[in-house]
Amino acid sequence: MKNTKIEIFNNAKEVFSEKGFKETSIAIITKKTGIGVGTFYNFYFSKEELFLEIFYVESIKLKDEIMKDIDIDDDPVCILKEVISKLFKGMKDNSILREWYNRETFFKILEKVKEGSGNKKEDLFYNFFNDTFKKWQSEGKIRKDIDSEYILALFNSLCFVDLHIEEIGGEFFPKTMDYLVEFIVKGLMV
């Protein structure tokens, strides 16, 4: 039996990977899948919703790949330097995840999905470290007086530094990112 939703997802992932978000249309996806455009809308509200679902699945794969070699009981500074480095490299190496760096397009995707479905979970990478930070707080490794959401926001801000490598000076990377991670973690330690 043909599972049309899975076929749409897989074909869209392939097309988005080859052409990027902007150059991919629903017509291209449906042609590759062998269905009519109207059938697409039985499964997805929009191209943006489909893309975000693919993005989310790819981000989970990246997180799982990164975390399989990480010992969460190691030194927090070393762990987070390694995780952040692998995270940014993985995002740049994956054509779907690389769309994150096109902030104007990515924010439009998020807005369109919010308008259309209203209930799409958009935690993406933001909650990537939440369990780890809460664990370290309960173990007394990092400060408890700072809410884990604020800690997540500190690490989320590193994405914006990564977006501006050229303006800051490419010759200073990846060492600048290592220092920022180290300074944040050491500021959180008890």
UniProtKB/TrEMBL annotation:
Entry keywords, A to Z:
DNA-binding
Looking at the record, the residues that make up the HTH tetR-type domain are: 2-62
Q: Which residues bind DNA?
A: 25-44
Which GO molecular function annotations are given, in alphabetical order?
DNA binding
Q: Does the keyword DNA-binding apply?
A: yes
Q: Which PANTHER family match?
A: ACREF/ENVCD OPERON REPRESSOR-RELATED (PTHR43479), ACREF_ENVCD OPERON REPRESSOR-RELATED (PTHR43479:SF11)
Report the protein name in the record.
Answer: TetR family transcriptional regulator
